[in-house]
Design a protein that fits this description.
The structure is a homodimer.
Chain A (H helix, E strand, L loop, with lengths): L3 H11 L8 E3 L1 H7 L2 E6 L9 H10 L3 H4 L3 E4 L3 H12 L4 E6 L4 H9 L3 E5 L3 H15 L2 E2 L6 H7 L1 H9 L5 E5 L4 H13 L4 E7 L4 H8 L22 H10 L2 E5 L1 H15 L5 H11 L9 E6 L6 H9 L1
Parallel strand pairs in A: 2-10, 3-4, 3-6, 4-5, 7-8, 7-10, 8-9
Antiparallel strand pairs in A: 1-2
Helix pairs in contact in A: 1-3, 1-8, 3-5, 3-8, 5-6, 8-10, 9-10, 10-12, 13-14
Chain lengths: 317, 317
């Protein structure tokens, strides 16, 4: 299991390249939530999501001769862009395996960061198969999306910033996909913020982590139908789950409708664009899923990459 | 004319209540602009615009017995909300005169900050007439939108934050409506940032300040048709103009289309919502209206209050 030292080392590595994202605070947030609520705005991070932190930490620690053989990742989402940009910043060639039906804007963005995109079928199995073929053929290094100590430590660097910027936090609230962000955040939070509660959030259809947490064994679910595309992971990672069992206090869920309503509120009142997965943690606080009142809480907006057409849908809903 | 001391005093007053808004920075901004570009995100300010700064500075300096007789402002826009909230924070009753055809969301927001809304006809003359009637009848104090030393000094406090956060700026770029923001910004910038250029921006249809600046006398234009509603002021204020003649280096214009395109870029790439007037200064830098390259520039996003339906229009355009 990673330690605070691993996260501190990651912070040193990523600091020169990632944004120190702001903490958004507003009277409207406090009124709305019944708490003193701060939002860690990782939607304002490079590539529009926290994923650059883990990917950069991973690739930066590869020996130069390994890095020179290239980087591979498979992702239809933010991990693709995070890995592509991290590789470019470190002078490595990146190949990203994406399903053939990925939105054109995501493919273009990934190519925009200098990566080669290789298409596969739309299943986890086929993605992994194609990525492994590239690894075998070229000697490139696979950058996994979450089940990796360096990735987890990298994602934890956002919480180091939060702990520096905010004293006396009662709780930190984080969305859970595969468990990279909550893994790093939980380790950092429990070591840096005495007495803090760490709460994970999923959408109801994607509640595999909650079920795993309650039964104390990893539950794999069918691909869930949820607007929060970052939550479509079917199971959390092994390393991530170990951390959750040790350091996470609770996992709660929100509905897709609560996520949509929260996205509207964040856009029209706070003036920031969150993607559905990015609105999941604030939604849990807004909709009083934590059973906390009058507390000092930080919730993560994990990302802000949204299709333009989805924003229109959101506003017309 | 106000001095740096006036702005420093205003900073002391407003600091406990306004947000210290973040400076947004991104590789995409630098690539797009050909400069090292930072955006002062006053769209993330309380009430969604810088206007709270000036209004609070004005009302805070009224003697208690004067403040107790109430506050009046006339505005269909952000000055209404800024004045309403500033009054509430200082325990004063606010009456805001708004045109009867103001969007319901703006009326609701103003009432939401505890102000009474009184409707008038949709002309500057009628607004002023109704506001003056209230002043005569109740002894309330009028908080003018821009042509006032305390308002100008208050709006200048954002530039004090910029000067603290950013060294060696080559230029600061600010939208011009009545001249409150550029007035305060110009005085602060020229005293705090040696060698800095101060550039104002208007939309082409609303180029009264540019024409005034060039002819060295205040030009009043017909109500301009522009999407930037904060620029529909027909003439700059007298105090504001004096500052412009002394401290502003240039005034440039952008088209409504350039503003729309910039709003889309800010929303989809930077993940922040700017209102049309808020996007005017970044638009000037993106569209190379300043003739600067490779410089360190700060452009203001002055506000983020947009009708939801307008966002859809923007994304479908």
């Amino acid at each position: 299991m990673i330690t605070l030292d691993d996260i501190r080392a990651a912070s040193e590595r990523v600091r020169p390249v990632v944004h120190r994202t702001p903490l958004l605070h507003a009277a409207a947030l406090d009124e709305r939530s019944g708490n003193s609520l701060y939002l860690k705005a990782e939607n304002l991070q490079r590539v529009g999501a926290f994923k650059i932190r883990g990917a950069y930490n991973k690739i930066a620690t590869l020996p130069p001769e390994v890095r020179a053989m290239g980087i591979v990742a498979h992702s239809s989402g933010n991990h693709a862009q995070g890995t592509a940009l991290a590789a470019r910043l470190l002078g490595a060639k990146a190949t990203i395996v994406m399903p053939g039906n990925s939105p054109a804007v995501k493919v273009d963005a990934t190519r925009g960061y200098g990566a080669e995109v290789v298409f596969c079928q739309d299943s986890s199995d086929d993605r992994a198969r194609v990525a492994n073929e590239i690894v075998q053929k070229t000697g490139a290094t696979l950058v996994p999306p979450f089940d990796d100590d360096l990735i987890i430590a990298g994602q934890g660097t956002a919480m180091v910033e939060v702990a520096e910027d905010l004293r006396d936090l009662d709780a930190v609230v984080v969305p859970i996909g595969g468990g990279g962000l909550i893994g790093g955040t939980a380790v950092a939070a429990k070591h840096l913020c005495p007495g803090i509660k760490v709460v994970g959030v999923e959408t109801e259809p994607a509640n595999d982590a909650q079920r795993s947490f309650r039964t104390k064994q990893i539950v794999k679910i069918d691909p869930p139908k949820t607007i929060a595309d970052g939550m479509r992971t079917q199971a959390v990672g092994k390393r991530n789950f170990e951390i959750m069992l040790r350091y996470v206090d609770d996992i709660v869920t929100v509905t897709d409708e609560e996520v949509m309503e929260t996205m509207r509120f964040l856009l029209l009142r706070l003036k920031v664009l969150a993607e559905p997965t990015g609105a999941v943690a604030p939604a849990a606080v807004f909709h009083r899923k934590l059973g906390l009142e009058g507390k000092r809480i930080c919730a993560f907006i994990s990302g802000g990459n949204v299709e333009p057409s989805f924003i229109s849908t959101l506003l017309n809903a």
